[in-house]
Amino acid sequence: MDPFVEFFSWLAREHGIRFTIVYDGFDRARFLRGVRTTFELSLVCIAASLVIGVVGAMLQRSSFAPARLLTQFYVQAFRNTPPLVQMYFFFFALGPALSAALDPGGGPILGSFAWAAVSLSLYAAAFNVEIFRAGIEATPRTTIEAAESLGFSPLRTFAHVIFPLALRVSLPALTNNLVNLVKTTTLAYAIAVPETLFVSNQIWSDSINVPEMMLTLLVFYNVIVGLLVALMTRWERRLRLPGYGR
Amino acid sequence: MKADYPPRGMRDTSGQVVGMEIDMARDVARRLGVDLELVTVLSSNRMQFLQQGRIDLMIATMSVNDERRAAVGVVEPLYYASGVAIMARNGSGITGLRDLQGRRICALQGAYYNREVAEKFVKGELIAFKGVTEAEQALLTGQCEGFVYDDVIHVYKKAADPAKWAGYSVVLVPEIAPLPWGIAVRTEDRDGPWGRFMSEVIVDWHRSGTLLELERKWLGANTPWLMAKHEELKGR
User: Fold this and answer.
1) How many contacts (CB atoms, under 8 Å) link A and B?
2) What is the ipTM metric for this complex?
3) What is the reported pTM?
4) In what order do the strands lie in the sheet with B9-11?
5) Which residues from A are below 8 Å from B115, CB to CB?
């Protein structure tokens, strides 16, 4: 047998310390599925929240007043309510109502994973809008005027001048928010998305090894958040412009 | 105590926790001559509450198996028994465990049969919620096609509110053997004075017919397991 598995089997036999996810095939498979779900949920939410964040920050500067108002309303609504409440609202209130309206008598139009992805993306994106806004407002007025005088259209000014500079200023705050987002994916456990916390809870309910699973969870989240922070720091370093922002 | 398991433990219209198991706890406090402090727990955290000393006695609809005997001090004799059933949506085609493969099945986190049902029959993860209310809501709104839970509670709910459950049927699952329920103290107390005292109390409840009486009061009828236990212990 694999010495790693052998060690944990021995730990369970001799000391009653039961990391069942190592030596029990069923527990290991469900834990790995949970880890994969956490990764999938995190990646989907990070991507969606970045896109919505950029679009929101653009709309906030729009000359069309209703667009500005709508963005403001969205940011306020999602920033000012707890993410768990939003998730419950989407899953238990909006989901059934939509299913009934669009497809009466049919099944649910979205499952729990999809609703978790929607609600967490919208939640994190509300913060991203504000984070990007802070970056955009930090872009020197003179730089924008220079771009305009070179004949850049507003959209090209945004895409080629304002946003690249704003992104650099926004990155530290963005890293914070994305770290928070990855940790907030554990809330999806409340609507039975089989992510890492959910499967861990199933495992400790069945195997009654709460301390072992708690330890596993702490190590796991430390590792994945550490990975994300390392990636973001590298990106920040690569994007650094000599002489700009420091 | 549990507050989400009618009629063993539930909230009445004023928010008070009432039920068969609450009456049992009151009787224990009366016998001890102490004030009763009720703490509500969930299936997924009840053993931890006991292990951490946040409660001294657990009467929380807990089915007893080997893992649980190793984790907490289960007091003999046991006091009740329940099996497993599926509250299935009519038209879902669920007539037993064999029909569950690949289905969206709701469950309650911490039920002892979840693993068996997930591993052998659904062959995937159950959609397990923390509270019974959430699981029921998910069933009623179509997020799942069936809800696997204790037979006694499904039968009770269906009888208590036929209008709400009109589109659903209770499918009994005889393949999973019924498990008796146990009252628990901390492991180190089981063979000490506290555990022995509780053991005597439970024997007395069976012998004197207190449990049968309480079951009639809360459920309206008696279950075979409890009647058999009464007969068994009556002569002692």
Assistant:
1) 62
2) 0.78
3) 0.83
4) B4-5, B9-11, B17-18
5) 26, 202, 206
